[in-house]
Every structure is written in structure tokens, then in C-alpha cells.
Design a protein that fits this description.
Elements (H helix, E strand, L loop, with lengths): L1 H30 L8 E17 L2 E9 L6 E10 L3 E7 L2 E10 L2 E13 L2 E2 L13 H4 L13 H11 L5 H15 L1 E2 L8 H7 L1 E2 L1 H14 L4 E8 L5 E2 L3 E8 L2 E6 L4 E2 L1 E2 L3 E6 L5 E3 L5 E12 L1 H5 L19 H10 L1 H16 L8 H12 L1 H25 L3 H25 L3 H4 L6 H17 L2 H22 L2 H9 L3 H13 L6 H6 L1 H5 L5
Parallel strand pairs: 8-9
Antiparallel strand pairs: 1-6, 1-18, 2-5, 2-17, 3-6, 4-5, 7-15, 10-12, 10-16, 11-18, 12-13, 13-14
Length: 532
């Protein structure tokens, strides 16, 4: 008794130690770094999705477009890139970030997706007193060159500018005069055929684009660097391809936004997302019949992944050791891996506390992980088909009287053939969920089929069906827990929870009481009733 009590006491102490290893860093994150334990409401949090669609011709294709980047007033919290046909590379050039999708595009409809989670705040810029710089770096100097595509950048335009700002000395005051003139005295029209700058100024009519180009060129003529900026309005439910454009000027080492049409001077509202700077289209492509459209939705809750990017402001370097610091691709891998210990705990509870029997220890967890990719109903169907066909091949091997290793090898080969055919069929009919069947672990399924066939021979159909049903019940419970987004985010934000799972496993490992199913099985014995 004393030896058993000492062992129990030792297991409890070890379990407490592991739980404390989880509790201490988790408490630091929650109370010092202010990590949220639950989702909470948040303002100005948006999901922006860009969908690109074009017709593949069986030839090489390339598409380039700009990407939003973290900048003053906007933070890119998360990015996802989806393409089943093309690869992509991220490029940084000057003040912009872009992406190149390229590869051989098969014939048919091709779709590319880019999704970003963004948080924005209003941006107000203060212009210090005093004149602008007199010397600029080569990078800034390029924005002093007049637009050669527009006509009438000549002495007549300089004369007009002299009349408009002749009595003003400072560059900042001249810029204000130009802004007020274009905003108040030039009418915005939807269409204006003339591209002549002087003509536009004479008739006092111009499109939004023409007014922006007028402002940029007039600013450059008074030796103030200026350029175009492009972005989209963030409005819940917005589905459009319209790109907004405005100007910005360089003063005292920083770019100041100027939107003549909306009357924003040194200000950008919270519902405007900057995409890129400079001239040129948002997207260029080497394919025909391409189109794009973006969709905007407003997020109402603050999650762990979105919170992580603000922890650097707290002054602690602890967040740099977080899983959120990994690349996006590696993060996705670890989101899957971290689910496995949680699934193993669920299996332990069902096997040791509830009393269900499964095919192996981790088979339900692997099935649950596969269900996350195929979705539940497709996963159940695919699992049933694969097991039935695998059992049929096992039965055929029995009739041939093969040895164990060759028999298992043949079953593995049959499974690969079945999965390959299912993937091809799914690809041809557009049922992409079927293609995810490759996530089923081949070796585990082979051993499961082998064990199920042995149970059929030794214990009969009833026992085999019972174990199969109980395995699926445990797998479905694992799937129900592991597919909850909050659980995934919590484990990723607090990976130290794994030590708490070890603690619980230690306690379950010392449980020697009745299992739940045994209460029903031995109910009469437990109650002491004589059933003879």
C-alpha cells in the first residue's frame, strides 16, 4: 500500500510540475503581454480577398500585381496565397511590394486568390514649419521629373503657375495655393477628352485622374517631389475592382497625402487601404481574358494571430520566440501538428475513462486530421470506400495464401491505386475535396485493414463492426474539437498548453477505476444483485 501510495504521490507531483511549466509562461503572456484569452470586439479590422480569374491556354502564364504592406496607419496581420496551378514569388521594389504568379497554365478556367487581414487607423500628418528640402536623394529626385506623356508642359504652363503663385515665397504656401485652386475652381467631370494641361486649366474642367496629374505636375514645377498613390475603400460587403487614386508630396523627409476630390490634405481615413505608390496599373498579365475583383468584409472579433503583431509595442522580446514569427507555410504545418497531442488526449479519455476500443492508439487522430481537409461527409464516404475496397483486396489475398509481408505490400499498392483513381476523378469533375484523400496515412490504413480482417476471422462480424463504429465515434469527437478555430488559435498562441496535456495524460495513466462502459456492462454486479 505504501509503495502504491508513493507512486501515486510521485505521479501527482510530476503532473503538477508539468502543469506549472504551462501556467507560468501562459500567465506571463496573459497578464504582462496582454494576450487575449477569449476573442473580443475590435474596431477597423478587415479581411480583403483578391480573386484573379483567367483562361489558361496550356502555355506559360505570368501575372503581376501589387500587395498592401504594413505602413503608417495600416498593419497587415495575416496573408494567404492560394493557387492550384501557378507558383508565386514576392518582390520588393522601391516603396512597393508585389507578387508574381507564374507557371504553365493548363487549358480552362484558372483562379488565383490572395487574402489579407488588415487593421487600420486614421492617419494625420503634421507638416513642420519651414520650407522643404533643397537637395534630394536620387530616389526622391525622380519624382521631380515632369510627366512626358502629358502635352503642354511648356512656358505657357509656367506662366500660369507664376500667375497663380507669383506673390508667394515658400514652397508649402505655393502647394496650398495649387491645392485650393484645383479643389475649388476646377470642376470634376466624368469624361474629358482633352489631355492638354493648359486647355484643362482654361476650361476649369477635368476628371479626377486629370486633376491628380495636374496637381502632381504643378507641384513638381515648384520643386516639390510628388507622386500617385493607389488603394481601395474598406467597406463591409464591398465587391468591386475599383482602385482609388490620390497624390502625395515629399516634405521634411516624409510623404504627405493629398486627395483633391475628397478634400483630404495630410490625412487618410481609417477606411482606406494603400496598395501601391507610383504610376502604372495595379495588375499586369501575359494572359488574355484575365479579370480581377476584390471583396472586403469587416471582422468583429480580435484573435490571437491578429493580436501578436501589436506585442512588439509593449517592449518585450518574448513575442519574438512565438510561433507567429515563423513563415506562413511553417505556421500552417505547426497548426496541424499541435492538434495531434490534443487528439491523443481525447483518445486516452475514450479508451481509459469511457472504455471504447479503437484500431490502434492514434488511428482516430489521423482520421480526424484527414477529415479537416476533406470535410466531414466527404471524409466519411472516402474512408468507407477505401476500407471496403481494401478489405476486398485482403480477402482476395487470403485465397492466394500469401505470406504476411507480400500480402501487406499488395494491399498498400491497391490503396495507392484507389487513391490515385479517386484523385483523378475528383480533378476531372471539379470535386477538389476528393484530392485531399492523400492525407490519409497509407501505412496506418493498411495495418487497420489487416487488423480488421483478422478480427473478422477470429471474433466475427459483430466485434469487427463494433470496433469500427467505436473508432469512428472517437475520430468524430477528435474532429469536432480539433476543427474549432478557437482551439486551433489558442494552441498556436499558447503552445505551452502541451505541457498541461502531458499533465492530464499522467493523471489518466494512473486511473484504475471503472470505465464508463463497464458500469453498464457490470451494472448488476456493482449493485450486488443476484441474477441467478
Amino acid at each position: 500500500m505504501n509503495l502504491s501510495s508513493n507512486r501515486n504521490r510521485t505521479h501527482i507531483v510530476v503532473a503538477i510540475i508539468f502543469f506549472l511549466i504551462f501556467l507560468i509562461p501562459a500567465a506571463y503572456k496573459i497578464f504582462f503581454l496582454k494576450y487575449p484569452v477569449l476573442f473580443k470586439p475590435v474596431e477597423n479590422l478587415w479581411t480583403v480577398e483578391l480573386k484573379i480569374q483567367f483562361q489558361g491556354l496550356g502555355e506559360k502564364a505570368a501575372i503581376y500585381h501589387f500587395l498592401p504592406k504594413t505602413d503608417r496607419g495600416q498593419t497587415i496581420l495575416k496573408e494567404d496565397f492560394v493557387s492550384q496551378k501557378l507558383s508565386f514569388t514576392i518582390e520588393k521594389k522601391d516603396a512597393n511590394v508585389g507578387i508574381v504568379w507564374k507557371g504553365k497554365a493548363p487549358k480552362g478556367d484558372i483562379q488565383l486568390f490572395y487574402r489579407a487581414t488588415v487593421q487600420t487607423i486614421p492617419r494625420t500628418f503634421e507638416i513642420p514649419p519651414g520650407d522643404a528640402e533643397k537637395k534630394y536623394s536620387p530616389y526622391i529626385f525622380q519624382y521631380l521629373i515632369l510627366d512626358e506623356n502629358l502635352e503642354s508642359v511648356n512656358m505657357e504652363l509656367y506662366d500660369f503657375l507664376k500667375d497663380l503663385t507669383g506673390d508667394i515665397e515658400g514652397k508649402q504656401q505655393k502647394l496650398t495655393r495649387i491645392y485650393n485652386f484645383l479643389a475649388n475652381e476646377v470642376t470634376t467631370v466624368p469624361i474629358e477628352k482633352s489631355k492638354d494641361l493648359i486647355e484643362l486649366l482654361k476650361i476649369r474642367k477635368a476628371t479626377r485622374s486629370q486633376k491628380r496629374h495636374l496637381f502632381i505636375n504643378l507641384a513638381r514645377m515648384v520643386e516639390i517631389p510628388a507622386r500617385s498613390v493607389h488603394g481601395i475603400f474598406l467597406e463591409d460587403g464591398n465587391r468591386s475592382k475599383s482602385i482609388q487614386s490620390w497624390a502625395e508630396v515629399y516634405f521634411h523627409g516624409k510623404w504627405i497625402p493629398v486627395d483633391i476630390e475628397n478634400r483630404w490634405f495630410a490625412y487618410i481615413p481609417e477606411d482606406l487601404l494603400i496598395l501601391y505608390h507610383g504610376e502604372g496599373p495595379f495588375m499586369t498579365a501575359s494572359v488574355k481574358e484575365f479579370d480581377y475583383r476584390y471583396a472586403v468584409s469587416k471582422e468583429k472579433e480580435w484573435t490571437f494571430s491578429q493580436f501578436y503583431h501589436t506585442t512588439a509595442q509593449i517592449g518585450s522580446a518574448f513575442h519574438e520566440w512565438s510561433l507567429f514569427g515563423l513563415s506562413l507555410e511553417t505556421q500552417q504545418v505547426f497548426r496541424l501538428i499541435l492538434m495531434i497531442p490534443l487528439g491523443a488526449l481525447i483518445v486516452s479519455i475514450f479508451r481509459n475513462i469511457v472504455g471504447l476500443v479503437t484500431f490502434g492508439t492514434f488511428m482516430p487522430v489521423l482520421i480526424a486530421l484527414a477529415f479537416r481537409s476533406t470535410k466531414l461527409w466527404w471524409g466519411l464516404l472516402l474512408f468507407t470506400v477505401v476500407v471496403v475496397l481494401g478489405l476486398a483486396s485482403r480477402w482476395a489475398m487470403d485465397r492466394l495464401k500469401l505470406l504476411v509481408v507480400p500480402r501487406l505490400s499488395v494491399i498498400v499498392t491497391f490503396l495507392v491505386i484507389i487513391l490515385a483513381l479517386g484523385t483523378i476523378i475528383g480533378q476531372q469533375f471539379g470535386i477538389y475535396r476528393i484530392t485531399a484523400v492523400a492525407l490519409f496515412p497509407m501505412v496506418i490504413m493498411t495495418m487497420t485493414i489487416e487488423r480488421l480482417s483478422i478480427i473478422l476471422m477470429e471474433k466475427g462480424k459483430k466485434e469487427a463492426i463494433t470496433i469500427s463504429i467505436e473508432t469512428l465515434i472517437v475520430a468524430l469527437c477528435c474532429y469536432a474539437v480539433m476543427s474549432v478555430t478557437y482551439v486551433q488559435d489558442f494552441l498556436f498562441a499558447f503552445p505551452e498548453v502541451l505541457f498541461a496535456l502531458i499533465s492530464f495524460q499522467l493523471l489518466i495513466g494512473r486511473y484504475t477505476g471503472y470505465r464508463l462502459t463497464e458500469y453498464f456492462r457490470f451494472i448488476n454486479f456493482i449493485k450486488g444483485i443476484d441474477i441467478s
